[in-house]
User: What shape does this take?
Amino acid sequence: MGEESKPAGGQKYRSLIAAAQRMARIKVAVAHPCDEVSLRGAIEAHKLGLIEPILAAPLARVRSAAREADLDVSGFELVESAHSHDSAAKAVGLVTAGRVEALMKGSLHTDELMGAVVAREGGIRTERRISHCFIMDVPGHPDPLIITDAAVNIAPDLDAKVDIVQNAIDLAHAMDAPEVRVAILSAMETVTAKAPSTIEAAALCKMADRGQITGALLDGPLALDNAISPKAAAIKKIVSPVAGRANVLVVPDLEAGNMLAKSLSFLGGADAAGIVLGARVPIILTSRADSLLTRLASCAVAVMVAAARRKVAAPIN
Assistant: This one.
């Protein structure tokens, strides 16, 4: 769906950007920004006071792309690389050197960037499973919707889903959600061995009861309609603080998440900002088709995550 045919929206993203502008600007390593789209996103985020970009890329290609697009990169630090894989490695190296608080994908493939992130030598993995979240701005829906995981974990098992859920909860808190309500999605609301996703949903909810997942209300299995529509939940007689009011949607696998997010985007006119969590720093992961507003919203979310991490890491007097 083209930008001109989308319903009017974006207010939730503008609110996120405004909130991030009240926080400290963060240094971001931008990996291989060798086209107009990725350069413009970084430059505009800098103009808005969100990020201080360091561009890791072949310098001749960056400067050529900037000239062709009439963009000025003369005020930014440039780190020379040989090619896209090297750009990813150099950007990750800025994280390990403690020079940046976030990574940003440029005009390279996602797997090139993530390969450097998870590398055994020089990577930036933590004990937490790495996972992706879409922050969806859906026209007509009152709150941003976090959908996870639609881009990194193809078929996560129960242990992986614990980290996927916790990453999303931490993100919602970083975005200052007053209450985090997590729906574990399936095709039905009843637990049955015929649908393994329902058993995992029930297990995740019990794990939250036992403190293995913290910071949110969980319910599941829930079908999508019962998760986001109070009317649908009432018709099914589902009584819970999450049903009909979820602001985090956890999908059974990547295929389901990808289809859900793209259905909202291309049929519902939603925008989908993207971020990867679970590494040492947040990773701003955008698509070539993303609008400038979506790219700026992704940067804003990274600013919020970085601010939340600094708050946790601050010494207690």
